[in-house]
Amino acid sequence: MKTLQPPPHLLGSSDRTSIVTEGAYLGCEGIVRALNEGADIVLTTRVADACLYLGPLAHEFGWSLDDHEKMARGMIIGHLMECGAQVCGGYFADPGYKDVPGLESLGHPIAEVTEHRIILSKLSGTGGLLCPATCKEQLLYEVGDPSTYLGPDCITDLSRVSFTQVLPDQVEVHIQSPAGSPRPPTLKALVGLREGYMTEEMVIFAGPGALDRARATQSILEHRFQEVALDAQQIRFDYLGLNAVHREASPPLNGHEPYEVILRVAVKTRDRKDAEKLQKEIDPLAVNGVYGTGKWATSASGSRIRSVIGLNSCLVAREHAPITLTYY
């Protein structure tokens, strides 16, 4: 692949030394070419997930890559299959609301495809659930506008898809034409940039007043960070179990005080020496902080400081990502 040219705003300057990795999401063309030329096993660079299924389908049925309807048909099949057992109830399961039996032995999907029919099923005797609801959730998984699902080989209208339960754990996929339109002129690419360092620490509190002690510890650390002139791009305090995921949208406590609280502190810095300041401020809290301060114990040896490689998305012209085949 040629060197990609990410937009300048991703770099912050014309200097490319901050780039660690770059790669475009390719389509099924290389897979189809390799299979057509007799390859038994095809190892790819990064391709769109669904193309791992679209490629063999296009090869088997002799589809033209310019046939937008055929490409959309294959993309829909691939999109339903790409996450494995997710379409068979994995990640769909929500106990008491959407119950799925046998998650400990979850079956993987099977797609039986002809030019006129698509049947999804799984091995009998395996756990899980395959029904229109699981298929609909998978169809909309990681999708923006369902009517304009952008892919490297075509644009697919997922609103043209419906499902029918044929037998238990067997679903027929219906695609109403037109469902496909020409591929976009660009490819999505991911550019990995060096973005400094990050580290995290956790402090555990239990018993009466646990939340107040965690808040007091946050206040201590905020003052200490000012004292030691911590130069951080980002400082984050999370109360695990209370607001770490939904942050400000988390529901109020309404007078209920948790018995246990874990305060997570994470910092992101440009310089490693600044990242080292977090542990130096956390360690003394065992005897210099509020009572009952329990420091996070870890089996990891050495520093928890790690380099940050930020993934940034951009669009690149297709000519910057030519396809080549190498045979072994």
- Find the count of extended strands (DSSP E, 2+ residues): 13
The level of helicity is 10-25%
Any idea what the shape is?
globular
Over all CA atoms, what is the radius of gyration? Answer: 26 Å
Structural class: alpha+beta
Portion in beta strands: 25-35%
Average pLDDT figure: 91
Unreliably modeled segments: none
* Largest β-sheet summary: 6 strands, antiparallel
* Elements, N to C (H/E): HEHHHEEHEEEEEEHEEHHEE
Model description:
This protein has 328 residues and is of the alpha+beta class. The protein has two domains: 48-184, no CATH class; 194-311, Alpha-Beta Plaits (2-Layer Sandwich), CATH 3.30.70. The protein is 24% helix and 27% strand. It has eight helices and 13 strands. The protein has helices at 8-11, 29-36, 51-61, 68-81, 132-139, 210-227, 272-282, 285-288; strands at residues 19-24, 109-113, 118-122, 149-150, 155-156, 161-167, 170-175, 180-181, 186-206, 232-240, 260-269, 294-295, 306-317. The strands form three sheets. Strands 1, 9, 10, 11, 12 and 13 form a six-stranded antiparallel beta sheet that branches. The longest helix has 18 residues, at 210-227. It is globular. The relative contact order is 0.15. The model has no long low-confidence stretch (mean pLDDT 91).
